[in-house]
Design a protein that fits this description.
The complex is a heterodimer. By secondary structure, chain A is an all-alpha fold. Chain A contains twelve helices and no strands. Chain B contains 14 helices and no strands. Classes of the chains: A mainly alpha, B mainly alpha.
């Protein structure tokens, strides 16, 4: 087990290195370079402009040295836990991200809880009543959750209650430390929408796994012992079918993070997703790279955790 | 030789018809899904004939007109007929879903077969790239790359195709690794079969089932992804009617006066993705050998058994 974890941790190093390469160089190809944007802004403000300003700005931002040297500097900073600073606001990126993290995190955790609360009961029911009306309704619901675009529901929720009942979700973000109830009320709608997407995938996986396990010999044994259905399903089938579901939940996390971009945008929550959209629009390279590197490392860590959890949940799994 | 080829072709045709019959008989929801997919394809292919107006024909007098005889689904803020825009939007969704899914399975199969069959160092190196690629949140990668390549239909297809392709290669690789342990692979090698022939004639046909499943799951995902990025303004630029784009800027701005502008595209998206997923599910159930047969289906008959035992 320890050897396995160490090997996995070692494998993370080349992966992370590739991640930094992808992140750094892809972002540099963004057209409509930041220097031009800034030069245009300054020219508009001061009434002068042209070549000279552009050169000064590029020098100021450290963008006039060859790309590989910029990369080296950036990577060196990463090792010291320094993601650099935003080209526009000059604020350290790490602080920007960390200050927005609680919002995205809260949204994500709430979404996972809601998603699982919907997914497990329906998934199990659908499997033990395969090809009955209940199964069809359950599966239709799950697929509706995946099919209905979250940004569409989000937009509808923003607009229609205000038309019908004169109520609209608050657009000012209330910190969790200030007013827990208000804060939850604000987060629960976007989190429920994100949770729906999650529950669709998890429910289908649960159903498939329960179906597979129900065909095992030990289930037949349990039946022939005369056990009640509840015991067969809850004690014998469910435990073994939920193991792969853990992986699916782990795999859903990147999608969840992506989904938060849309929800944060619609519900005006100042999380990491909003920061990404903002910095993409302003071509703020270091911020874009910083966010992507942070997210990628987080996901690598989560994947490892999921794999280790797997070993604890399933005694048949041996790590070598 | 010729005879056996005809014979195997006949079996193939028979099994395909058989699959279709089983779909209709055993999977009513899957059949509904198949019908929805067919409608999408029809609408996409014959958009020019079906749509009452062009997708960008502006009638100022009809600005924000509610659903009526002339505009069955109403008109948008520029007086364009929404039904026509939805139908042309189906064409965009069709291109994106088919294009991106096709590209993705080609990439998945290519990477998966090479990485899975060769194994060893090649596999290790390729898998690190796949790892690195897969640890970005998909929407982050799509948005970043779309900001780089600029908006457009072709760009969306390529970005989604590559993204899903690299992700899906894991599944194909897994299938290849288990297939190559089969005795018929050893037999082929021992009779002097070249690697290329082995991969194409023996490995490839056996990874077709997971590949088809990948294809159907990607189709729905691609439509949603395209709609999401068009909604955020990084996808297909106006005036091309993408369902997601129709929901963004103008759709949200005029939603209070003209709710139909936001309702129809969302509804179209939901129904189509629902249909594709239902169809894909049914195909998976029919193709996945692990779900086939076993000790009988867990259904009515099975549930009665404990009762009979106790009573």
């Amino acid at each position: 087990m320890r050897a396995y974890v160490i090997r996995r941790l070692l494998l993370i190093i080349p992966t992370l290195f590739l991640v930094t390469l992808i992140v750094f160089f892809s972002v540099r190809f963004v057209p409509g370079n930041v220097v031009d944007l800034m030069a245009a802004e300054m020219a508009a403000a001061a009434g002068t402009g042209g070549e000279l300003t552009a050169k000064v700005i590029a020098h100021e931002l450290g963008l006039d040295v060859p790309v590989h040297i910029q990369y080296g500097k950036w990577l060196g900073g990463l090792f010291r836990g320094d993601l650099g600073e935003s080209l526009w606001t000059k604020r350290p990126i790490l602080n920007e991200i960390v200050s927005r993290l609680p919002i995205s995190l809260e949204l994500g955790i709430l979404a996972i809880i809601i998603g699982l609360l919907i997914a497990f009961p329906i998934g199990v029911y659908s499997a033990i009543r395969q090809d009955t009306r209940g199964d069809y309704i359950g599966r239709s619901f799950a697929i509706m959750c995946i099919a209905v675009p979250s940004f569409w529901i989000g937009t509808m929720v923003m607009v229609f209650p205000s038309v019908w009942w004169n109520w609209s979700p608050p657009v000012q973000c209330i910190p969790i430390t200030e007013n827990l109830g208000q804060n939850l009320l604000q987060f629960i709608i976007p989190a429920a929408i994100m949770g729906m997407v999650l529950s669709g995938v998890t429910m289908r996986m649960t159903r498939t796994m329960v179906l597979e396990v129900l065909r095992q010999d030990y289930i037949r044994t349990a039946w022939s012992k005369g056990l009640r259905e509840r015991v067969v399903v809850m004690r014998h089938a469910l435990k073994n079918s939920l193991i792969p579901v853990v992986t699916i939940i782990g795999m859903q996390i990147p999608i969840l993070i992506g989904g938060s971009v849309i929800m944060e945008q619609i519900f005006c929550l100042p999380g990491i997703g909003r920061l990404l959209i903002l910095s993409l629009n302003t071509r703020d390279y270091p911020v874009i790279s910083g966010i992507n590197v942070m997210m990628a490392s987080a996901i690598l860590g989560i994947n490892l955790l999921v794999d280790i959890t797997y070993g604890y949940l399933d005694p048949r799994v041996h790590y070598r | 030789m010729g005879e056996s080829a005809t014979y195997s072709r006949a079996i193939k045709r028979h099994s395909r018809i058989d699959l279709f019959i089983r779909l209709v008989r055993e999977k009513p929801l899957g059949t509904v899904g198949a019908v929805i997919v067919l409608i999408l394809l029809q609408a996409g292919i014959f958009a020019d004939l079906l749509a009452p107006y062009g997708f960008n024909e502006i009638y100022v007098a009809d600005r924000l007109a509610p659903p009526s005889g002339t505009n069955i689904l109403g008109a948008d803020n520029l007086g364009r007929d929404l039904l026509s825009r939805i139908i042309f939007g189906a064409r965009i969704s069709m291109f994106v879903s088919l294009g991106a899914s096709f590209l993705s399975i080609v990439i998945s199969t290519l990477i998966g077969i090479i990485s899975g069959y060769l194994g060893g160092k090649t596999d290790l190196v390729i898998q690190r790239f796949v790892d690195a690629w897969m640890c970005f949140p998909p929407l982050f990668i799509i948005l970043t790359v779309m900001a780089i390549v600029g908006p457009g239909l072709l760009q969306v297809i390529v970005v989604l195709g590559v993204l899903y392709g690299i992700g899906g290669s894991r599944i194909v690789r897994g299938a290849v690794i288990s297939i190559k342990e089969n005795i018929y692979v050893d037999a082929a090698v021992s009779t002097g079969c070249s690697t290329g022939r082995l991969l194409i004639r023996h490995i490839l046909p056996n990874v077709m089932a997971p590949t088809i499943i990948l294809f159907t799951t990607r189709m729905g995902a691609a439509i949603i992804a395209e709609a999401s990025i068009s909604f955020l303004g990084f996808g297909i630029p106006p005036p091309t009617p993408s369902w997601g784009g129709m929901l963004s800027e103008s759709g949200r701005k005029y939603m209070l006066q003209a709710p139909w502008m936001a309702i129809w595209p969302g509804l179209a998206l939901s129904i189509v993705v629902y249909g594709i997923n239902m169809f894909g599910d049914a195909v998976r159930d029919l193709l996945d050998p692990r779900l086939r047969g076993g000790i009988g289906r867990y259904s009515g008959a099975k549930r009665k058994r404990p009762k009979r035992l106790s009573g």
